[in-house]
Every structure is written in C-alpha cells, then in structure tokens.
Amino acid sequence: MVAAAVLSCLCLGSGVAVAGDGWGQPKPGSDGAGDSYYPQDGNGGYDVADYNLKVGYDPASHQLTGNQNIAARATQSLSSFNLDLHGLTVDSVRVDRRAAAFSRSGDHELVITPSRSLRRGQNFTVEIAYHGVPAPISDPSLGNNGWQYTKAGGAFVAGEPKSATTWYPVNDTPLDKATFHLAFTVPDVWGVIANGRERGTFKGNGGTTHVWAEETPIAPYMTTVAVDKWTFDRRTRADGTPIVSAFAPGVPDSAKQAEARLPEILDFLESKFGKYPIDAAGGIFLNEEIGFSLETMSRPIYSAGWAGTIPVIVHENAHQWYGDSVAVQHWRDVCLNECFASYAEWLWDEAKEGVDLNTEYADAVKKAPTKFWNGKLYGMGPGNEFSYVYSKGPLMLHALRNYIGQHAFDFVLKTWPTLRRDGNASMQDFQRYTEFVAHRSLKGFFDAWVYGAGRPADQYLFPGGLKP
Ligand SMILES: [Zn+2]
C-alpha cells in the first residue's frame, strides 16, 4: 500500500500524464486483495482513506438502513471496481456524485461501474444507499462472524477474518486501513458503542443518533458497533486518552472490577510494547456467550463468562499493538497477532503475579504431546489459523527471548509496533527485524519453531537459561 501511494504521488506531481498516456488503459479492479487463504476478500485497484457511515437500525424488526460515503484513491486506472457486501440490498450508488451502474456477484461482490472511468492516482468518492436485515457469516471452523443478535434483543459485530462486510459496503481486507466515522441511529431506549472517540448524540430521525469516530487507520474487521441497554463507564488515562467501556445488563460486578484495572493494564503494556498506538480505549462487555473475545480497535469486545477476565483484557489490549496497529500482511501471519497477545499474558503474570516463566515453559514443554509440536505457527492453512498460536505461540516467544537474550528481545518487543505503526507486516518482516536487532541469522530458530513442524532441536528448545 505504501509503495502504491508513493507512486501515485509521483505521478500526480509530474502533472503531464493524461488518460491513456502512461496512466494505463482503464481496467476493472481486482475482485480480491490476494490473501493466500482468502483471495476473494477485499479488492484491488484503489485505496480507501475514510468510511463515513450513517446507519439507522431498528432492534425490533432487525431492519438496517445504511448510507455509506467512502473517500478513496485509484491505484490503477479503473473502468470498474468492487466493494464487498454480504447480503443486504443496494438501492443506489454514486461515484463522485454521479449515478453509477452496479451489480452483485458471487458471495459478496458489489461491482461498481462509474459513468466515467477513474484515472490512476485520482481521488474519488463512493456513496451507497442500502438496506436489509443483516446476518452473520457462518464458518464451519471459525464460527459466526460479523453482525449478530443478542438474546436480549440487541446486536453486535465481531469476527475474523472478516465481519464488516455483513453490515456495510467495504474493501474488506486488513491491507486497506482507513479512518472510520459512524453515525448510528436507534430508538431512544437503546444505547450504542463503537470504535474510537465519542462525538456526541443528537435526537431526531425517529430516535437518537450516536456519533463515533475512529481516527486511527483501522482494518475493516476491527470495526464494530454494539447495540444494547448499556451502562457506560467513562474515565481518562493519565495522558488524557479517553476510556469508554460499556456493560450489557446482567454483566456481573466482577467484570466491572476487572475493567477498572484497564489503565494499569495499558500502562503495563506500554512499558513492554512502546506508546499506546490508539487515541481511545475501553471495552464492550456482552452478556452473551459468543465463544471468543476480539480485539476490535480501541474497544475490545468480550464474551460473557467472566471468570479470569484480567488475562483476557490483557490479551485483547496487547492486540492493539500486535494485530490492530500492526496488522497481518496475510492471514498465514496470524502468529504476529496471537503469539504476542498470548505472550503478553505471560509477561503480565511474570510482572504482577510473580510467576517464574522459565518454570512455566519447562512444564509446558514436558507436558506437550507430539501432536502439539506438529501444530504450525505459520502457513497453518485456512480454518486452522487459531489452532496452535495460543499454546505454542508463547512458548516460541519465550524461547526466542532466551535465544537472542533479554536486552535484544525487549528492544524488539518495544520498537517493532512503532516501526510498523498503522501498517501491515509478515512473519518474514518480523524475522528480518529481529535478526537486525540481534546481529545474527535466526534462520535455524524460525525454521524450527515457526515455519516448520515437529519438536525443535534442543539448541532452539532449550537456549540460554532454559534447561531441559
Ligand atoms: Zn487474540
């Protein structure tokens, strides 16, 4: 994305090229962003800068009415381009305020043909009016993703590798981050929480409109909205960053007590990972068992089942650095999210609970069956992304800490998120950076622990102070 943007700027600066002369003949944008597991997710040919989304939603009928306004830039000359939208009915599309032709194809493709083709480097807007009853995407291994309903009559959005496409037209790939502005109207008795900062509420249009703004570029699957009869808790961090958390009716006090430690948790994570990379914080506490919690940006969403909530809060907030601010390049790189967020729980236990991590590591290695070592931390295949990253992932990072030494490891953990802030990264990028910091090749280590399967040789399994 960076390379494409730089190239566009150079072309614009030259001021001499015209359509058909160096800009390339307008062609349809790709209908996928090329992920190795989910090649049809997202699209090519443009880069979204901002989503400005207005939604009206009626919890009683589940009817949603949306008006999406996208600001984007063409990264190639486009005769047509795609957005992603799962279900829902599109009523009209305008590109640069002119009516555009559109059609639907496949599982989620919205194909838009502007009345005039778009030149490479051109900024353009897309306005889409749509409506319908949103529904989640059911995946046999990953469960329900996207827009979901609560038993109490509310709704929320959570899921990966994609979820945004279930409620708004979007370029649904982690490679295309954008700012996200949401005005969400519900009947007055309902409350709304979403990503970023609160920008106020106003009455009218048959309800109350709740305005939220995420100004940190966000991957679409990290956007969320949740509708319920919330109790809000509002505070600020010492540096003024607003913390807004919302608790659904029936959420026990233990969850509120755990959430009260969020400033301490963010301070701790900041001491390990560098400055908090988002300009808002908080959490969304559902009274609904959804089988997972998710690191939705600035405001993780938590499933019911609150026992031991602190490790989950540590985990989801660690993702704000590892997963949100620095997102995956491909889904095969998901260890860059989950191995690190899981190891953050270890670091918390070490610092706050006095846990000896070398002992914890030795016990885990001793107990691990053969099957465990054959689980993969990279290239695990679609549907298996989350099978081993939570268990084998923190062991790998603890071994890496002992292999390259405490000082180099601390430095990598703390500087990598700043280096890659608001961007994407692959496991190979991370390996190269760690090698740079450690002044040595780590090919053997990464082959043994990350790219390969099987129990690592002792030199990688028991480096430094780790004894068999
Ligand atoms: Zn996670």
What's the arrangement of secondary structure elements?
Elements lengths: L1 H13 L12 E2 L17 E13 L4 E12 L3 E7 L4 E7 L2 E2 L1 E5 L3 E5 L9 E10 L4 E3 L3 E7 L5 E4 L19 E9 L4 E4 L2 E8 L2 E12 L6 E4 L2 E6 L5 E6 L5 H7 L2 H12 L7 E5 L15 E2 L6 H10 L7 E3 L6 H18 L4 H11 L2 H5 L17 H13 L1 H14 L3 E3 L1 H12 L4 H9 L6 H4 L7
Parallel strand pairs: 1-4, 2-13, 19-20, 20-21, 22-23
Antiparallel strand pairs: 2-3, 3-9, 4-8, 5-6, 5-9, 7-8, 10-11, 11-12, 12-17, 13-16, 14-17, 15-16, 18-19
Helix pairs in contact: 3-4, 3-9, 4-5, 5-8, 8-9, 9-10
This protein binds zinc ion (ZN).
What does this structure look like?
The protein folds into 3 domains: 1-218, Immunoglobulin-like (Sandwich), CATH 2.60.40.1730; 230-320, 2-Layer Sandwich (Zincin-like); 330-461, Neutral Protease, domain 2 (Orthogonal Bundle). 27% of the residues lie in helices and 30% in strands. The longest helix is centred in the C-terminal third of the chain and has 18 residues, at 335-352. It has 468 residues and is α+β, with helices and mostly antiparallel strands. It contains 12 helices and 23 strands. Helix 5 crosses helix 8 and helix 8 (392-404) crosses helix 9. It binds zinc ion. The site of zinc ion has 5 residues, from helix 5.
